Amino acid sequence: MDLDTLYREERPRALATLIRLLGDFDVAEEALQEAFAAALEQWPAGGVPRNPRAWLVSAARYKAIDRLRREKNLAAKQAEIAYLSETAVPAPGLAEEPFTDDLMRLIFTCCHPALALEAQVALTLKTLCGLSVDEIARAFLVPPATMAQRLVRAKAKIRGARIPYEVPGSDRLAERLDGVLRVVYLVFNEGYAATSGDALVRRDLCREGMRLARLLRGLFPDASEVAGLLALILLHDSRRAARLDERGDLVTLEDQDRSQWDPGQIAEGQALAEAALRRGGAGFYALQAAIAALHAQAARAGETDWPQIAALYALLLRLHPSPVVALNHAAAVAMGERLDRGLRLIERLEADGELQSYHLLPAAKADILRRLGRRAEAAAAYERALQLVTHDAERRYLERRLREVRSAP
Amino acid sequence: MKYLLLIYEKEADWAAIPEAEKGKIFQEYMDYSKGIRKSGNYIGGEALQPVSTATTVRVKNGKTLTTDGPFAETREQLGGFYLVEAKDLDEAIRLAKGIPSARTGSIEVRPIMPTPPVE
């Protein structure tokens, strides 16, 4: 294993422990960076220590103490230095446990509900994933200065309002874990479904989202929703190569070249989704993963088990009512039961008016009308969708469909 | 660490509540106050008279400007506060959650800035 890969793996736990020992995010991050720089000098010649993480933590802690000593008001820092010298560093060769506990503390602190959601996401990418401010700013299409400010404010709130560096008690754990899952899902989804931005950066976000989901899966092996989230991410990501054509245009699930789907990720995702459903307590993520697993199972689009998918969407709609879930349910009903029943459900959603500016509503309606052979109405619905769409690849897809229904004999 | 829990309510809503219901909410506040005194979190707390009794004072160029009413018209009005001692924000949030008005209005949790003692 090369040193960069090693560092990437050890970094989250080492940093989490350092933040506890040093009591400050910035001091811990800087000290760990210095320790890694030292490692890059020493390890190639002297060999990698038996427990590189403990080495990094211990080296970083000394770097932090050194830095405090160098600073001018030494007297004021004496107490702090004494405290730092005494606080317990996990000894090399010790069990994983103390590091794992610290990692959980860090995750729950980054995803604390008292922080704005966008700050939670930024802090998670910065501390847990080790992305630079510039990288995060590019991913979210904001100027680097804005992103830096967002991180400074979040850290200042953690300090100022005293957000605890703690794993929440069992009475709040489920609720707080939901918040963590939402952040991880957002990270992945920002990369997967981003409406614009740099393709490379978006890939990074997908990869980080998957890494975070795996990390959580290791920490909470008994939580159905954690398994569900990892399954969902694996299954969606398994289609990445087939999702866009060579021009970068979106290819619908129906038209994707299924031989390009990643069979390894599908197998892992399916197993996790099944396990999550069997264990019970399947919610938002596990149900969506089960739906994605059914899509993945079909060797051809025509073999998709739409009735089962419609049933899962109905369940999801009951647990998490939202117009977008209702739209997906309607589309699945159209495919699985009868086109006109799906159409009626979509028309009811249209009447509700909640999805007025959501392009996928007229797009789904157009799709059903096209299948029903009602071409003039389909064309009108595609035109409506085109007025609302923002993503270029989606726009080209809708334009192609519009040409089809207009030109068909 | 000290936190100020600021209680915001729509005064108009409060005025519309029947007397019997008000009595019940008052009793809930009494119970809540008693509870946080017992747990040692309570430092202080008061209910405020309605904003119609408020006066805003500013000093500009040495001149006192006095205006009727609160500094800003908001959807919800400050109706009272508790000053509490809590170990961290999570405990302060737990205390805020217990305030009866959290169900009908909102509670702003503000950490108190640590200041050196006055000599």
Write the layout of secondary structure elements.
The complex is a heterodimer of chains A (409) and B (119).
Chain A: H1 3-22, H2 25-46, H3 52-70, H4 74-86, H5 97-110, H6 117-128, H7 133-139, H8 144-160, H9 170-193, H10 199-219, H11 224-237, H12 240-243, H13 263-279, H14 284-297, H15 306-319, H16 323-336, H17 339-352, H18 360-371, H19 375-388, H20 392-407
Chain B: E1 2-9, H1 11-16, H2 19-38, E2 42-47, E3 55-60, E4 63-68, E5 77-85, H3 89-98, E6 106-111
Antiparallel strand pairs in B: 1-5, 1-6, 2-5, 3-4
What's the quick description here?
The complex is a heterodimer of chains A (409) and B (119). With 409 residues, chain A is mainly alpha-helical.
Output mean pLDDT of chain B: 93
Largest sheet of chain A: none
Low-confidence blocks of residues of chain A: none
- CATH class label of chain B: Alpha Beta
Query: Uncertain runs of chain B with pLDDT below 50, 5 residues or more?
Result: none
Element string of chain B (H = helix, E = strand): EHHEEEEHE
What is the 3D shape of chain B? Answer: flat
Number of helices of chain A: 20
What sort of overall outline of chain A do the alpha carbons produce when their principal axes are compared? elongated
Name the CATH superfamily classification of chain B. Dimeric alpha+beta barrel
